[in-house]
Amino acid sequence: MAKKFFSLIIALALLAAAGAAYAAASPEPSDKTIKREIKLGRKSAAEIEKHVPRVLNPSVEAKLSMIAARLIPHMQRELEYEVRILEMEQPNAFSLPGGMTYITTGMLDFLKSEDEIAAVLCHEFVHADRAHGIVQARRNNRLNLLTLAGLIAATQAGEGGAGIAAMAGGIQTAMMNTYSIDLEKEADAMGIDILYRAGYNPAAMLTMMERMNVERLKRAQYELGIFQTHPEADERVDAALKYLREKGIDIQRKDVVKKLRVKVDEEGGRVVLRIDETEFLSAPAGGEARALLDKTAKRLDETLELELLPYDIRVSELGGERSLVIGRETILREDELLPGMPELPALRDRVMEAVNLARRGGILTDYYE
Known about the structure:
Layout: H1 2-16, H2 34-51, E1 54-55, H3 58-71, E2 82-86, E3 93-95, E4 100-104, H4 105-110, H5 114-129, H6 132-140, H7 145-156, H8 161-174, H9 181-197, H10 203-218, H11 233-246, H12 254-257, E5 262-267, E6 270-275, E7 278-284, H13 287-303, E8 313-318, E9 321-326, E10 329-333, H14 344-358
Helix pairs in contact: 1-2, 1-8, 2-7, 3-5, 5-9, 5-10, 7-8, 9-11, 10-11
């Protein structure tokens, strides 16, 4: 019975989190319902935490609170936004009416950067801000806010099996048609705008969904949490990509997913330049070698992107001198190479290898579109 009740509570939470879309997909929420939403959210939170372990980690909670503090000023309604952590392997996040938002330990492990954490929280905050759970319930015309409150109250009043059965029936009926893709895309699009205004990389909304989509297809039996209730993964990715372009926002995934990191180290008497784990250049340690590799590393760091086209990385004749070029920037001239270093075409192949390896986490992503 406890396991069944746990599933029902999570279903209720996900129902409250339902939705996301382009601006105007949902009617304007009324401030008149805020108190009722907050009350319902508090009751739902209390039930969830009876059955799912909450993680109390001050350092992680402080980080989440810091991220939330940058996002909250850009929300349209003054709700009780708070982020709590649940102990759960599945990557998941959901918001309750009134603003309470949960993120699982599995999701925190899955996300690659602060920008991606902000993207997930922002998406869920928008769900609460725009009252998407209530909008979805009204669309289904089977469950409303008062019914939800009554079902929760019935279980809290100790009605036991009857209360649980009533909740099961109400939730299952409300969720029959799943969640509307227009509401999902509204939370993605509004989240992108808020990320931009809050100083985060808005491409994080895209990278998080791209990797979730990969995991969904790689692991047919894997419980994907947030994407199990948001099955239109391809459509959401395409919509987010289109929205970013319509807004004129440069899509730069590299820093968000912590890929194409360039570093120079000294190892066993040699100085080595690597792009992630791919060795690009090395030479016996010494002032001239270190200066060349540091300069080359800086040029690579400024030009490498996951979105580079194959012809962006090339060996060209510039001013009578052959050079390795990325985009419009010269990375390394032939006359700069030290004795024993590979020729430029081989270095070009190493750059391509590093870029291709970095893209593996988003194998379904069309970087050239």
